[in-house]
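Encode chain A's predicted structure.
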Amino acid sequence: MADPEAPRFSALALPELQGVDLAEVAAGDAMDAVRLHAQDVAELDWAGTTFRGCEVALVGVRTLGLDRARVLETRLRDPDVTILRSRDSLWRGVQIVGGRLAALELAGATWDGVSVSGTRLGYVNLREASLADVVLSGSRVETLDLGGATARRISLDGCTVDELLLTRATLRDVDLRGARIARIEGTAHLAGTTISAEQLLDVAPYLAAELGINLG
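Encoded structure for chain A:
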């Protein structure tokens, strides 16, 4: 069987950046080629904002609101965010490097050309989202919820996932071989994924249960 098609990426090359103060950023603004830093902030409301060619460092942020935002060719560096809400948003050509994101509310979002490396992730809600050319590498994920999502050319490399939820997901060229996955819900929707022989043994009891197969 042929290997799944790998995610397609263009290298992220940020332009010369200008530092701006948080007070200069408001919901619905357009931010181009800026460097933003926030520390020990209770809440940031950037709903509907466009970030293009930016670098954003957020430390000790309790709630970050990015609903309907556009995050383009941008790097999130070592984030430390408790709740990131970004429903119905567009993320294209984005790097998330290091840090911790405890809860990501990304229902209905579009992730196109996104890489996440060395990041600790809690509950990642990508229900009904559209994903293409996404790589998670060297990351720890508590729950990855792809319920009802459409995903193609996705790779998990060197990741640990406590729980993967796939109910009603439509998947194509999704490579799970580089992940240690403790539990999968919705194994009947694994069509379009590539898993290792060892992973197949791990998911066999869940798949049998969903298909009504009794294991003797």
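Residues 18-183+190-210 form a domain with the Pectate Lyase C-like fold (CATH 2.160.20).
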